[in-house]
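FORM 12-B: Structure-to-Sequence Request
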């Protein structure tokens, strides 16, 4: 079996590189599956090879029924991965799992719908640590993202309704997040998400964002749950099946793997960036338009009796369809000291929780500036901030330890500045 290093500059046969940098290690074909293992230098110093960086990279593949390279038609796929910063999976002793999902929820014929379900957490006699969170997605072409919030002690009853229409708005402490295209998320061995013990009696709110641009509605369909290990080559077949169905009933949610073997630290999630609120706008026909949201950690001691710095180990960046880049700048003493995390080629279809590769320290008094860059060249009207997929967000969810009783550190748009920039006589 021969393996060739090639490159392509368009819709033509990939040319063979003058410098061959890929080495085939193994190749097996059995039961209709091909498994290939190969290696290449991170930076091959070859003009025809892209260097492998610590940012998410898009991998594309195509396959055929023979060893001849021909046009692949629809036998192809893509996946965005971070090749250098991964968190290895562990299987600690005394572990189990539980699911928090929707149950037979009929997806409404609306382009954007946020559905919420408030339930009490499973009962554990003693404190446990969650060490892995994975999606259980049934309608992966309609489920855009999931959030799990911990409710305050004042919320004592279960509830299911459209989000932000009642008491669900009180449950705002983010504990888990998943975005379209993402897979399982692993915590580092020194930290875990606490459940049971002194947090055992809390209620939690599962929020599911359904993005339904075709406004599909109708009867239930017989479809199995999607897990991140599903063969990517099966996606097109499944999507075609879904499109033929009259409508959807959904049972999506999250699976939490937990252990009684406690880790050194309790972990938590901090939402940073620009608050999701009316008042910021992106102009139409803009090739590259930035917005900014600031988290000034000097404010944390004003709301917490026992504040502490953050040891940040992972992050999830989030915008909607117009987003092209997201970066989190880290400032100390008025100077930028780091870019905490960045995605220079943001893809709405792949929103993975990214491991930073090492733990980064954010001290109290540091500032975190979330910068989102948008492209609205194909739009004729203003794009407002909001919950709809055609509106915009600019958020970074930071996974850190030790945990604080804090859900968000965001800034709000300046309505007077917007009014002045728009030349408007009043806010309406």
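FORM 12-B RESPONSE
SEQUENCE OUT:
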């Amino acid at each position: 079996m021969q393996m060739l290093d090639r490159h392509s500059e368009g819709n033509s046969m990939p040319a063979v590189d003058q410098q061959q940098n890929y080495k085939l290690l193994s190749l097996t074909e059995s039961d209709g599956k091909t498994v290939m293992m190969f290696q290449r230098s991170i930076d091959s110093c070859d003009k025809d090879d892209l260097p492998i960086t610590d940012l998410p990279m898009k991998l594309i593949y195509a396959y055929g029924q023979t060893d001849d390279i021909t046009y692949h038609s629809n036998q192809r796929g893509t996946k965005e991965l971070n090749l250098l910063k991964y968190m290895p999976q562990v299987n600690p002793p005394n572990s189990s799992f539980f699911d928090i999902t929707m149950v037979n929820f009929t997806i409404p014929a609306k382009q954007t719908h946020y559905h919420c379900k408030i339930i009490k957490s499973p009962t554990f006699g003693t404190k446990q640590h969650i060490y892995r969170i994975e999606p259980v997605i049934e309608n992966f072409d309609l489920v855009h993202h999931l959030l799990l919030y911990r409710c305050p002690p004042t919320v004592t009853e279960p509830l299911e309704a459209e989000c932000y229409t009642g008491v669900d708005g009180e449950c705002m402490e983010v504990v888990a997040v998943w975005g379209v295209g993402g897979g399982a998320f692993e915590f580092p061995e020194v930290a875990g998400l606490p459940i049971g013990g002194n947090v055992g009696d809390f209620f939690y709110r599962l929020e599911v964002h359904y993005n339904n641009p075709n406004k599909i509605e109708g009867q239930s369909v017989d479809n199995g749950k999607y897990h991140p290990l599903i063969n990517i080559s099966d996606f097109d077949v499944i999507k075609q099946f879904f499109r033929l169905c009259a409508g959807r009933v959904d049972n999506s949610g999250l699976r939490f793997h937990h252990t009684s073997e406690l880790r050194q630290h309790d972990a938590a999630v901090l939402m940073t960036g620009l608050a999701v609120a009316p008042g910021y706008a992106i102009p139409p026909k803009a090739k590259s338009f930035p917005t900014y949201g600031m988290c000034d950690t000097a404010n944390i001691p004003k709301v917490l009796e026992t504040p502490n710095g953050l040891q940040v180990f992972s992050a999830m960046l989030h915008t909607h369809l117009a987003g092209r880049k997201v970066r989190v700048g880290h400032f100390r003493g008025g100077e930028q000291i780091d870019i905490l995390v960045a995605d220079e080629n943001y893809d709405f279809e792949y929103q993975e929780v990214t491991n930073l590769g090492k733990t980064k320290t954010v001290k109290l008094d540091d500032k975190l500036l979330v910068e989102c860059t948008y492209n609205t060249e194909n739009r004729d009207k203003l794009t407002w901030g909001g919950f709809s997929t055609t509106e915009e967000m600019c958020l970074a969810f930071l996974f850190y330890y030790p945990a604080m009783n804090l859900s968000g550190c965001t800034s709000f748009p300046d309505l007077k500045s917007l009014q002045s920039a728009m030349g408007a006589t009043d806010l309406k």
